[in-house]
Amino acid sequence: MRELWARRLAAVTGLLVLLLSAAFAAVQNPPLPAASAAVSSAAPDSADARGRAVFDANDCARCHSIAGEGSPRSPLDGVGSRLSIEEIRQFVIADEAVQDDLAPRAIAAKRPYAELPAAELDALVAYLAGLK
Amino acid sequence: MAGQVARRPFLQSGAFWLGIYVCLVVAPLALLLIGERPRAGGFWWDFALAMGYAGLAMMGLQFALTARFKRATAPFGIDLIYYFHRHLASIAVALLVAHALVLLLRYPQALGGFDPRRTPAHMAAGWIALLAFLALIASSLMRKQLHIEYDRWRRLHVVLAVLGLVTAFVHVLGSASYLQVAWKHALWLGLGAFWLALVVFVRLLRPLLLTRSPWRVVEVKPERGRSWTVAVEPEPGSRAELFNYRPGQFVWLSLRASPFALREHPFSIASSPSRPGRLEFTVKELGDFTQTIGSIQPGERAYVDGPYGNFGIDRFADAPGFVFIAGGVGIAPVMGLLRWLADAGEIRPLWLFYGNRDWDRVVFREELDALSLRLSLTLVHVLGEPPDEWSGERGYMTAEVLNRHLPGKRDDLQYFVCGPEPMIRLAERSLDSLGVPLARLHSEIFDLA
């Protein structure tokens, strides 16, 4: 019976922790006042397809999401409307000009992208610039 | 002589320490909401992350639960501490599995693939941590089915726990967007370092201190029922001479092994502190280690870590009497308590229900008869396979057996049950059906793992 008591108490503790975790998530995600439309990407043309292929090949979805796919940590929907093409390129390769706006881990992760072949990098940037 | 110990309301202090536990799990999580926060990722994303943080905090706390801190474990018996350890660990791992599953099912691209060549280090660490914790749970809950020998299991347990903890923290510190802020990063780094330091203290520092307090075996005496009495004394001049304990407590005893070797085993002290200078243990040939007890020679080195446990009578100066229920070698701590009570000239009424398979196996038979002359002790032997001419109680520790010998007013006595788990369960159910409140029941469980 002492074990039963311990088991019940542990279950209550577990439930409490679960509820508090859910509360944490709720606090972080308050309900939005108006429905924010998910940006739907236009039907991709071949240039977009090349850019998207570079995006997939480099596992960018590990940190970024587009149209709800990928890590919601850093969504890229509408980035083409927020940043200029040059700024997009700077962020992709963690150029010195924008390093202050990037977490150290992100800078480290983006370092290899500076080594991408120019054609691939251009395609990727063009694809991202098209996300408006 | 134990003086008056202040009464600690069981539930109050128990609730206090549980509250501390929940705070310790939830606080690191709550702190992440203070100050700069990462962008919200959607309810399920953040819920999964929160479960990850909480699950890891719970796993870290497991080290504290089993670090043998006397003050924190004192409101509970050692049995409850180990039940909590087991159940909370299972819940923590369930949270970590949920963390991985939610992310895997809803955000597969964010996880990347399983290809170890392309996976970043912190993600690989996360999978290793999860596997290590699952192996930890499986090997612990199914130790006997998997035929893992006890000593090996203990070493495996520590290795898997530390591996899981370290890789989990590598994962968290490498991937967590909530830790972008320097102080939050430092908090979790500090938390991980704290748990690791705890392991170092328990597994390296404390054994080191023990090697400075050696004991030596002075007697190995065969008893009935394939049992032995092993007596140890402190080496002259060693700090072990300062060892002090209360009747009913237990220690971790290392024989033929250094304290680092994780070959220690818990044994209740059967002797009484009223006769200092020597500790006696009653060991039954039951398992991997105890089969070898008969070969221990006087003069051999021993190490004693303790004392631990609060299975004893000194918190109950006001109790009108005590009832002891022992099964087989569970008599050991009860002998310590009875010897102490006899030396102290105790006049309150005592009952001992002592269960054994047959009359020949009853350890301490003669001494119990002698003690029942010095104390107002009602001695009730319960035999599973009694001889034909047996007129005493037979079978198991059922409510009928207890009812026949307990006084009419029985709910204000304090009850102490010690023995294998099935016996304890039966005794608890029996006492419950006789109207004994749970708070008056104190159990010391043998054969935990």
In brief:
The complex is a heterodimer of chains A (132) and B (449). Chain A has 132 residues and is mainly α.
List the helices and strands and how they pair.
The complex is a heterodimer of chains A (132) and B (449).
Chain A lengths: L1 H27 L17 H12 L6 E3 L2 E2 L3 E2 L3 H4 L2 H8 L11 H7 L7 H12 L3
Helix pairs in contact in A: 2-6, 4-6
Chain B lengths: L9 H22 L11 H23 L4 H4 L4 H29 L1 H4 L9 H21 L8 H26 L6 H30 L3 E9 L3 E8 L15 E6 L8 E5 L10 E6 L16 E8 L13 E6 L3 H13 L6 E7 L8 H10 L2 E7 L9 E2 L4 H7 L8 E7 H13 L7 E6 L3
Parallel strand pairs in B: 7-8, 7-11, 8-9, 9-10, 11-12
Antiparallel strand pairs in B: 1-2, 1-6, 2-5, 3-4, 3-6
Helix pairs in contact in B: 1-2, 2-4, 2-7, 2-8, 4-6, 6-7, 7-8
Structure overview:
The complex is a heterodimer of chains A (132) and B (449). Chain A is mainly alpha-helical. Chain A has helices at 2-28, 46-57, 79-82, 85-92, 104-110, 118-129, and strands spanning 64-66, 69-70, 74-75. Chain A has a 3-stranded mixed beta sheet with strand order 2-1-3, with no helix packed on it. Chain A is elongated, with a radius of gyration of 21 Å. Mean pLDDT of chain A is 83; it is low at 34-43. With 449 residues, chain B is α/β, with parallel strands linked by helices. Chain B has 12 helices and 12 strands. Chain B has a 6-stranded antiparallel beta sheet with strand order 4-3-6-1-2-5. Chain B starts with 9 loop residues before the first helix and ends with a strand.
